[in-house]
């Protein structure tokens, strides 16, 4: 299959380009498109054959359910058995936006889209390209992140092409996405809302609306292989670069000291060492490691004073280490603030929960 790349204006997408992409979706094909979180790999959410194609293109286990994307509130009713009051409150606060809700599904939604579950995940994105495509297709669009299963999610069209060239019909290139981390997922089928995956909309922001919010254990730590978490995708190793990533956590001076000694050891052994730092900390590593060997790949992920920059660049940085072919990676830790929960959730998964406390 030849993958067509079509550039599209991210603010005012050209109608004829959106139509061309929508026709592919209507015909059962696959189109990758930008959302405000990451690039999605879209197919008709109501067509079992389209979901099978999505799983095949991603190499994704078919018990890992897909999120159905809608553009208008009127599209929600037909997909779900009921709309609980908690959902109404959350939708009013955060739709359109980077928040996914889990509902009991209606019979309209095929189980191939929901990984065999009786529930369905629904999100209304705010990105103009995503909204125009969903409207033009006239159906909800199932869209997991447009990466090969286990790779970091794509935040630009070039990342999608790296993973999906020849596997899907089209990539709508609407430039770099804004947030750079996947949506917050909240299950509203129980007595209290449950946070399944943190995102740009943080645990604190949801707790401000629901003091009784519960947090699914799967979003906090590693899952055993035989566990049955609420969000099945959580049991798989996700967002992983090819080299082992180690997070060093603690007081900043001690963290930098530890990272330097680990990097020095690797470099001395002739390894290529990737290091995730910030604008603020880069000079420290540069000064200390300048004479330690030429295998150092020191990458700035963003600024401590702007956590959004760290979220925005994280997956691109993880991918860049694959391209550079590093042997081991060390990262500082980025807790705190609105985005700390989401950033650390992804970074820990990428590290396979390999964390050193100093
Ligand atoms: P992605 O497609 O990579 O953004 O991730 C989709 C994730 O949404 C899955 O891996 C699940 O964790 C979650 N999800 C989707 N549908 C459901 C559902 N019905 N119940 C619980 N979690 C879901
Ligand atoms: Mg994904």
Could you characterize the architecture of this molecule?
With 358 residues, the chain is of the alpha/beta class. The chain contains ten helices and 16 strands. The chain folds into two domains: 216 residues, DHBP synthase; 114 residues, Rossmann fold. Helix content is 32%, strand content 20%. The strands form two sheets. Strands 1-8-2-3-7-4-6-5-9-10-11 form an eleven-stranded mixed β-sheet, with helices on both faces. A five-stranded parallel β-sheet has the order 14-13-15-12-16, sandwiched between helices. The radius of gyration is 20 Å and the shape is globular. The model has no long low-confidence stretch (mean pLDDT 94). The structure holds adenosine monophosphate and magnesium ion (MG). The site of adenosine monophosphate has 20 residues, from strand 6.
Q: Might you state the CATH topology name of the largest domain?
A: DHBP synthase
Radius of gyration: 20 Å
Biggest β-sheet, characterized? Answer: 11 strands, mixed
- Output the CATH homologous superfamily of the largest domain: DHBP synthase
